[in-house]
Amino acid sequence: MAVSATLHCLTGCAIGEIAGLMIGTAIGLSTGWTIVLAVALAFLFGYTLSTLPLLKAGLGVGAALSVVLAADTLSIATMEIVDNAVMAIIPGAMDAGLVNVIFWVGMMIALTVAFFAAWPVNRYLLQRGKGHALTHEYHGATSVSTGLRRFIPSFSTGALVATIAAFMLGGLVVSIADEMKTGDSGGGHAAQVVHE
């Protein structure tokens, strides 16, 4: 269960991190502000992915958020600290543009290391009835969702992980193709790709 909880956390963090980096790069934010945006979005998406099943199971928004904040904050914080630390120590990864192999390889390495850092945290919390143990009773609830709750999507952890992996591999392939075409290693953090 700790592996599943960590993978679930990883998907929210990855969505937020990548979205934040893409938005920050697109609007020309500095590296520091891009990291702030990426971390904020990682928490937002992480909490959202954990809140949706609770809402579908019948909890109110306030109760669901209360459970999720207690369950996921330590795991997401661990993942974000490690993820950003790894990206910072990989030469050029923090300043790499989105169409740059080092960005995508660095992100894959950082998220993998972050998974292995957060997994023991989740395991420790689960063994003490905390963390994802707080949300577990609501996942896969047998009651039929009614009203607007029936439209709340249900995403399996496997589907989320597969989607993130496919997206990251797609980014890597595009970066490799761009480097083969231009013959260089891409631009800096906010570099624009200009094709003639």
Shape: globular
Order of helices and strands: HHHHHH
| Percent strand | under 5%
Low-confidence stretches: 192-196
Number of domains: 1
User: What is the tally of helical segments?
Assistant: 6
Residue share in helix: 55-70%
Give the end-to-end Cα distance, rounded to a whole number of Å.
52 Å
The profile of the biggest β sheet is: none
Structural category is mainly alpha
Radius of gyration: 18 Å
| Total number of strands | 0
The average pLDDT is 84
Question: How would you characterize this protein structure?
Answer:
- The protein is mostly helical and 196 residues long.
- It has one domain (2-139, 154-181).
- The chain has helices at 2-26, 31-56, 61-89, 101-127, 133-136, 157-182.
Task: Offer a concise description of the structure.
The chain is mainly α and 196 residues long. 70% of the residues lie in helices and 0% in strands.
